[in-house]
């Protein structure tokens, strides 16, 4: 079963279960297990960090065919806390894997450079930036980061995980005093989006040249010069998947660890 869901990450310690902490996965698995009277284990498209939001997260779970799939979102709405919701549930082919079948993930990061700060009603999903940001400089620097690279300078390394990613979209748009970064890739390594945003904000306010973030791609370790942007400005907004008959092949490709080529 595929689940489409959203959550306000403010009061969650991220997606993944952690002992003694409130997490999205923990709340969902525990609630679903109670409602369905079945042990539930979720696989998610992308594990978000503490404080990061999701408007278009995807997960999958294996459940008996007797479960009323169509009625599940309504049943869960009565049991889940208000900061997490399952919008839709549907049966998908056995080859569907929320994580490994995904073609790409789409994130957005919101920043306000208004002198007075972010609007009070958007304070939980918009970063207040104290200095004016140059949209042209932001986009110039962003364009130089596109493509497949080793993004280790922008990632918190995890044992056995690759930091090679294909960054397919990174561009900024302004609406009044709010700038939004649109970021898409086949996958992201740990804290990659927030690190990219942090580096680009240094360019946008004039502290660094537009060529600086791309120059860090030659590094072989995480850069101490990159400041990780706060989590609350970041939201996972969509996950793309191939057609049903291509799910298994996509999962096989994704599971192959990429290595840097010369």
From TrEMBL:
Substrate binds at residue 107. Residues 6-100, 141-242 form the Pseudouridine synthase I TruA alpha/beta domain. InterPro entries: PsdUridine_synth_cat_dom_sf (IPR020103), PsdUridine_synth_TruA (IPR001406), PsdUridine_synth_TruA_a/b_dom (IPR020097), PsdUridine_synth_TruA_C (IPR020095), TruA/RsuA/RluB/E/F_N (IPR020094). It comes from the Bacteria. GO terms for molecular function: RNA binding; tRNA pseudouridine(38-40) synthase activity. One of its GO terms (biological process) is tRNA pseudouridine synthesis. It catalyses: uridine(38/39/40) in tRNA = pseudouridine(38/39/40) in tRNA. This is tRNA pseudouridine synthase A. It comes from Saccharothrix coeruleofusca. The lineage of its organism: Bacteria, Bacillati, Actinomycetota, Actinomycetes, Pseudonocardiales.
